Amino acid sequence: MSLFGSSGIRRVADRELLEQALRTGISVGKTRRSVIVSTDTRTSRDAVKYALISGLLSSGCKAYDADILPTPTLAYAARNFDSGVVITASHNPPEYNGIKLWNPDGSAFNSAQREQVEQDIYNDSLVVSSWNKMQCIESYNGAIEEHMERILGDFHPVSNVSVVVDCGCGAASLITPHLLKQMGCKVLNINSYPCISQSRPSEPTAENLVELSRVVKTMRANLGIAHDGDADRMMAIDDEGRFITGDKLMALFCQELKPKKLVTTIDASMAIDELGIEVVRTRVGDTFVSEELKGGGDFGGEASGSWIFPKVSFCPDGIYAAAKLVQMVEQKKLSRMVDNLSSYYMLRDAIPIDRELMGKIEEKLTTLNPLSVSTIDGIRLSFNNGWVLVRPSGTEPKVRITVETKSAERTEMFYNTIVALIAACKKSRSRDIGTEI
Q1: 339, 367, 390 — which closes off a domain?
Q2: d(CA 256, CA 233)
């Protein structure tokens, strides 16, 4: 069974995760002499962190504890070490935790590196160093200041920009509000203090950002910024209080950055293809976008809110993205920029299923007579003026559905068809199990 999903190891924080953390530390420490470690704000952070650090130290590796940091801040700090590790489950519910592994250039461990760690986790004969080669923990301070200095070096001071910042009580609370103030913004904070009790669900979706939208409208702010728990994501609210989808944000960033080559995921809007730039699509997950960017590309992102700026790091950096968006808003109203984009009609949803059903679902989907089929990640069906993607989640026991067409009615029709097809497959599966029993 694969331990790594689309963004590291992630599961409910339990004995098994602690054992995996210990073995991950031993595995990483075998070949690296120095590793920096941080966490997000979850209650299980220290338990998992110290299990991992124990593995690092027992393998003879020097471990540096940076305490609570946003993931992109840790990834930037990793340039001074052989590796970086973040204990986080990103946007998952608070009972989850996980492990993200980073190279010194800010890229996530690639498939070969992940495979080696996974083999070591399952290796019962995994050994540790002798007592006289085991190391001690050192604290590491200054990562936030270093990251802020790097970001501020790319932006001029702004004026007359008011922004409401919602960090979801996550790690971004330690940096984003302070960064934007240093840029010259008038900042109003909500949920922007590190706390073990999440004030809202961590994922920065429209449903979870109702309060942010209300405050932006009430205060007549220029925009709202929202992060997930570890700040590798950034989403936004415009000056009219409207949630901006990740696909529209991607288009806005592309218009501003003017990349020659964009790397994005298979579920990104077809509106991207109208921007006159080279578009390369990967499997869903920032790890795969990062891997592709290392081979060339000026900007990378995915509609979930992950934005990668290769000149800084190959890690998604929601904090840098926030600074970039603020600079854009100084020049033009965010609502006006959004309204000038091409409009398509998209629906995204997730349905709990057993992974064993994916094969049957894919088989049924091909009966819809698509113009073309892609199996880069799940199954993507292309039709005239639209497409459908059905793929298993990389972090949860769900199937994720994305439908996009040029009309609301056609999008809803495709969506209802897919949901009915999945329901039929689940019902058929239940009958089969009943027969077997």
Answers
A1: 339
A2: 19
